[in-house]
Amino acid sequence: MTDQAPAHLLVVDADERLRDLLRQYLKTQGFLVSLARDATHAARLLAGLDFDLVLLDAAMPGAETLSDGISALVLRTVPKDDVAPRGEWIAKPFEPTALCEKINAILDRRPPPAVLAPKMVLMGDMRFDIESGLLERSGEPVRLTGTEVQLLRALAADLGAPVSRGELVARLGREGLQAKARAVDVQITRLRRKLEADPKAPKHLQTVRGAGYMLVGD
Fold first, then answer.
1. pTM across the whole model
2. Which CATH superfamily is domain 8-108 in?
3. What CATH number has the domain spanning 120-215?
4. Interval 183-195: pLDDT, tens
């Protein structure tokens, strides 16, 4: 397990004793655990809560219909001699440690959460509102051209990381600049005059040699 919030599991099984044993064990492994006694009960919980993974008894009535509507990851538990179902599964009876390893392996394959770009970039006494396109210095608006707003938004989307001139051209949607990328350099120079106390030694709109330009916030 990592420092992230613990994964929330939903155990769906008709066997009350097994449900309780799984809850006790999985809680010791750092998971949040909810229980459902049947498909109807599980559907009610799924409608009101978000789960990272559902441990579902594949032999339970209504299990297949339930699984079709689940957006979370699903791990099916299957009687030992049954035909293997589609997707992830583990045969009953299983060792608790084997189940935990399987759950962690499935969770580890999740894509990382999307990193949202900030809505506001702070740069010393300046602040840029990405949504409105408003740049302010000490609370007073700084006039930007439409291209400068687009350029700042494009750089803010990768705040603290270099963006190549070619990528900036593409994000600005001006294909005519592709043959003369130095036009981007001109826009950067003009923007630095509005952003930087010393445009010749930029602190916030930096050049990254061989990589492009980078917007740095506080």
1. 0.52
2. Response regulator (3.40.50.2300)
3. 1.10.10.10
4. 788 889 999 999 9
